[in-house]
Amino acid sequence: xxxxxxxxxxxxxxxxxxxxxxxxxxxxxxxxxxxxxxxxxxxxxxxxxxxxxxxxxxxxxxxxxxxxxxxxxxxxxxxxxxxxxxxxxxxxxxxxxxxxxxxxxxxxxxxxxxxxxxxxxxxxxxxxxxxxxxxxxxxxxxxxxxxxxx
Length: 150
Ligand code: IDP
Ligand code: MG
Known about the structure:
The protein is an alpha+beta fold. It has one domain (about 1-140): Alpha-Beta Plaits, CATH 3.30.70. Helix content is about 40%, strand content about 15%. The protein has 8 helices and 4 strands. Strands 2-3-1-4 form a 4-stranded antiparallel beta sheet. About 30% of the residues are buried. The protein binds inosine-5'-diphosphate and magnesium ion. Inosine-5'-diphosphate (IDP) binds near residues 91 and 118.
C-alpha cells in the first residue's frame, strides 16, 4: 500500500480542525500508520519546503509553518498520494472546490490548513524527514475487507 505525509498546519490546529481532518481521512477508508503533534523548527521547515527556496513567499511560508504546533500523519492506502491531494484541494483555498478541506475551510493561500505530499518521491522524502522508521506502525485495519474489493 502507498504512503503519504499529511500535515495539519498551525492554522488548522489553532482553528480546531484536527478532528475534522482526521475524521475525513478515516472515513475515506485510509489507515493512519503514524501520527504526532510537534512544532517544526526553521531548519526542518526549510528542508521540507526546499523546492520553494528563493520564491517571494518562502520566508512567510517558513514563519507560518513554524508559528505553532502541527499534526503530522503518515497515511496509508490505495493511491494515497493522488487521493489525498484531491481531498485537500488546490493550493489557494479561495479556488479549491467545496468538499475539499481547503475549499471548505480556507480563504487565503498563505493559510491553507493542510499539507499533503505531491508525489511518491516527495512522500518518501517528507516521511523520512519527520518520522523514524519505528514510529510507522504496521497493523491491520478491521474494515479493510469492506474498503477494498481485493
Ligand atoms: P501545495 O501545498 O498545494 O503543494 P505549493 O505550491 O507546493 O502548494 O506551495 C507550498 C505552500 O506554500 C502552500 O501550501 C502555501 O502554504 C504556500 N504558498 C504557495 N503559494 C503561495 C503564495 O502565493 N503566497 C503565500 N503562500 C503560498
Ligand atoms: Mg507542494
